[in-house]
Amino acid sequence: MRVVTIGAGAIGTATALRLRQAGAEVVHVAATAPRDTLSAHSFSWANGIDEGSEAYWHLSLEALAAHRRLAAETDPAWLGTGGNLHWAADPAGEESLATAAKGYRALDYPVRELTTAQALELEPGLRLDDAVGPIRFYPDDVFLHTDLMLDAVARAATGLGVRQRFGEPVAGIAADGRGVRLASGEVVGADAVVCCAGRGNAELLAGLGITLPLLAPGSPRRLTHGLMVRTTPVEAGVRRVVHAPHLSIRPASGGALMLHCHDLDWLLNEGADPGELAERVVSRLPGVLPSAGGARVASYLAAVRPVPVDGMTIVGPVAEGSAVSVVATHSGVTLAAVLAEVVVGDLVGRPHPLADGFRLSRFG
Predict the structure, then answer these.
(1) Residue 17: which of 28, 7, 33 has the closest Cα?
(2) Which of 3, 22, 210, 306 could form an S-S bond across to 205 if both were Cys, CB 3.0 to 4.6 Å?
(3) What phi, psi does 346 have (nearest 5°)?
(4) Which residues form the FAD dependent oxidoreductase domain (predicted)?
(5) How far apart are alpha carbons 159 and 155 in whole angstroms?
(6) Which of 140, 146, 137, 121 is nearest to 258 (CA)?
(7) pLDDT the model gives residue 69
């Protein structure tokens, strides 16, 4: 079987590797190199996701296991362990975190309540004097150094014979799904095509007369915009994911930090300048991690997430018997490793047991 995978983010890169390992001849095409994708700039926190969907919960748990498998095969250095610390600064926030923790315990997902002293044993540099209630610790949460992950997985794929054609945009998919046409005009034939191009999937499928149901940018129904900020290297950072009030932090490669402020993302809907918002994000850092007070903005990326209209991932063939498959999700890095396995299962005739609730066909 010859397969063309489109997109060089976490999903596309992992899918290309897994398909090759399953025996397929793989041509991996993308408009950009892996390090230039949205995945490379993601906050990249992976955890059990409790959003009221049992199917999504089990998929997220399997994703954690799949990430560990993928890291063990490629380079364990890209998978960051150590869990996640989370606390509130006001009674309303504490009530929300307590409710969430209760839900996770009901699902048997590990969560511990720490005193300030216990939390500081894990992360001595944090400022916790504003904490209201306990600091909650989720030991099974992980994060990904996605730049290192993309390098390692792409390198492993190349070593197995995947043909990588980065910097070559796809202009369209053959009407029968048996290949793609590149922007250069070249036609690359295949037995199957897998679309892992983020929001770019919508345009590719539109050429086949298929509507991919994604929320429009700025939709009031769910946050679609995201701003991720990478700092300059700091002398003393953090070793795990930290969710402080109004600022999320994780370690980044090269001694830097990756930062995210959920509340500031909403301002992108209103046309706020991303560069100015990036400076605001970094300005919050000394209040949480005083030792990083000298950090500056090294880079930032403002992007629109590919959010399906029902908030649930889409994966699998675009129609029964079609040679074209699609993966569309706003949890691309979080779920990448397991979604790659789902795609492979579909193409080799062994559908993944967790895939049923995530098919495009659910939209009718």
Answers:
(1) 28
(2) 210
(3) -60, -45
(4) 3-343
(5) 6
(6) 146
(7) 98
Q: Are 22 and 312 in contact (CB under 8 A)?
A: no
CATH class of 80-142+218-304: alpha beta
**Can you say whether the dihedral through the CA atoms of 356, 218, 90, 82 is positive or negative?**
positive
Phi, psi (deg, nearest 5) at residue 144: -120, 130
User: Residue type for 142, please?
Assistant: V
**pLDDT tens readout for residues 178-227:** 999 999 999 999 999 999 999 999 999 999 999 999 999 988 888 899 99
Q: What is the pLDDT of residues 23-55, one digit of tens each?
A: 999 999 999 999 999 999 999 999 998 777 899
Report the C-alpha gap between 221 and 39 in whole angstroms.
Answer: 23
Domain positions in the chain = 2-75+145-214+308-363, 80-142+218-304
Quick check: helix, strand or coil at residue 164?
Answer: strand
Q: Are 332 and 238 in contact (CB under 8 A)?
A: no
Which of 4, 81, 55 has its CA nearest to residue 310? 55
Instruction: Find, among 36, 45, 34, the residue nearest to 11 by Cα.
Output: 34
The topology (CATH level 3) of 2-75+145-214+308-363 is: FAD/NAD(P)-binding domain (3.50.50)
Q: Count H helices, E strands: the chain?
A: 9, 20
Neighbouring CB atoms inside 10 A of 163's CB total 15
Relative orientation angle of helices 262-269 and 274-283, to the nearest 10 degrees: 160
Q: Which of 62, 149, 54 minimizes the C-alpha distance to 341?
A: 62
Which DSSP symbol is given to 216? Answer: P
How many residues comprise the chain? 364
Q: Which pairing describes strands 2-6 and 192-195: parallel, antiparallel, or unpaired? A: parallel
Starting at the edge strand found earlier in the chain, the sheet holding 314-317 runs 163-166, 25-30, 2-6, 192-195, 324-328, 314-317
pLDDT, tens digit, for every residue of 295-319?
Answer: 999 999 999 999 999 999 999 999 9
Maximum separation of any 2 CA atoms in the chain, in Å: 63
Give pTM, 2 decimals.
0.96
**End-to-end alpha carbon distance in the chain:** 29
> How does residue 166 score in pLDDT terms, banded at 50, 70 and 90?
very high
132: helix, coil or strand? strand
